[in-house]
Structure formats: structure tokens, C-alpha cells
UniProtKB/TrEMBL annotation:
Biological processes per GO annotation: positive regulation of fat cell differentiation
Gene that this sequence comes from: AAMDC
Name of this protein: Adiposis associated Mth938 domain containing
InterPro entries, A to Z: MTH938-like_sf, NDUFAF3/AAMDC
Superkingdom field: Eukaryota
UniProt xrefs under Pfam families: DUF498
Cellular compartments per GO CC: cytoplasm
Coiled-coil boundaries: none
SUPFAM superfamilies: MTH938-like
Amino acid sequence: MSSPEIASLSWGQMKVQGSTKTYKDCKVWPGGSRAWDWRETGTEVPPSTVEYLKKQGIDVRVLQTEQAVKEYNALVAQGVRVGGVFHSTC
């Protein structure tokens, strides 16, 4: 399963390849996407989460949204299985 490309990003709106929904904030992973309510977890990535993922051999990048989408889509274009959590108003 490949990761879906983020087709568009503007303030408060994101579209993901393969989904008919327009998201404000979203989670994407190989094979899918869904809305993300940042109030569930906050918008900051706790250092303990980053450490845990790195210990699992997962490359972690915490970036401003526009840069994160560019990097994510570049990895998708290379065929890398990648996931992300995106907040379109930051």
C-alpha cells in the first residue's frame, strides 16, 4: 500500500489523494487518511513520542505545515511509505 499524496493545502483546508473529503487537519498513512481533532492530543509533539518512534527505527520530522507537506509529498513521490499528522492553520 502506498501513502496518499496531499493534493492541496490552504489555510484551514487540505485535500488528500483518494479522499473526497476536505480536511481542516488530518492524519495520513499508507493506504488512507482521516480527520484529526488536534484537541485529542494537542499540536505539540511530546519529546517522549519522538524518542519512542526513533527507538522503533522510524524517522521523525517535526516541521511547520507547508514544509512538512512538501517533504511528505517528496517522500511519497519516491515511493517511501510515510505517514503524517497535519494541522492546516499553523
